[in-house]
Amino acid sequence: MNKNKVNLSVIIKKIPVFLQLFLNSCLVILALILSFLLVKEIIVFFEILMTRGSSDYKLFLENILIFFLYFEFITMIVKYFKEDYHFPLRYFIYIGITAMIRLIIVEHDHPTDTLIYSLIILILIIGYFIINITPLERPIHLWFFNKKEKN
């Protein structure tokens, strides 16, 4: 019976290691796919510049913002590995702001939608500001963490 408990505990301890390895390998595959799409986007840039000239600036701006989205996702995956398997929240905010800016540039036909997208950007910037002023670790010496002393 003890031998079964030992084997089970070893298996249970191996599960997170296996899942972390699986997650890391999937992220590497995703980074490779995003890198391929990033290179493909650069080729599209040159095609737009060579064939259409500077007359189609909306398409060019849209492709630039798509390029930055790929770039930010790849950067976020790199940061994940550099920061000991942790996604920094600020990179998700960067991606959200870039995506909203892309929507404003591409779909600016309806003023109400543009206003809503602008408000979303404002909310994301306020969230980013709150993240930057918040300390990384919680201070231990706050009034609600102190235990009352018995006299």
From TrEMBL:
<feature type="transmembrane region" description="Helical">
    <location>
        <begin position="59"/>
        <end position="79"/>
    </location>
</feature>
<dbReference type="GO" id="GO:0005886">
    <property type="term" value="C:plasma membrane"/>
</dbReference>
<feature type="transmembrane region" description="Helical">
    <location>
        <begin position="91"/>
        <end position="108"/>
    </location>
</feature>
<keyword id="KW-1003">Cell membrane</keyword>
<keyword id="KW-0812">Transmembrane</keyword>
<keyword id="KW-1133">Transmembrane helix</keyword>
<comment type="similarity">
    <text>Belongs to the PsiE family.</text>
</comment>
<dbReference type="Pfam" id="PF06146">
    <property type="entry name" value="PsiE"/>
</dbReference>
<feature type="transmembrane region" description="Helical">
    <location>
        <begin position="21"/>
        <end position="39"/>
    </location>
</feature>
<feature type="transmembrane region" description="Helical">
    <location>
        <begin position="114"/>
        <end position="131"/>
    </location>
</feature>
<keyword id="KW-0472">Membrane</keyword>
<protein>
    <recommendedName>
        <fullName>Protein PsiE</fullName>
    </recommendedName>
</protein>
<dbReference type="InterPro" id="IPR020948">
    <property type="entry name" value="P_starv_induced_PsiE-like"/>
</dbReference>
<dbReference type="GO" id="GO:0016036">
    <property type="term" value="P:cellular response to phosphate starvation"/>
</dbReference>
<dbReference type="InterPro" id="IPR009315">
    <property type="entry name" value="P_starv_induced_PsiE"/>
</dbReference>
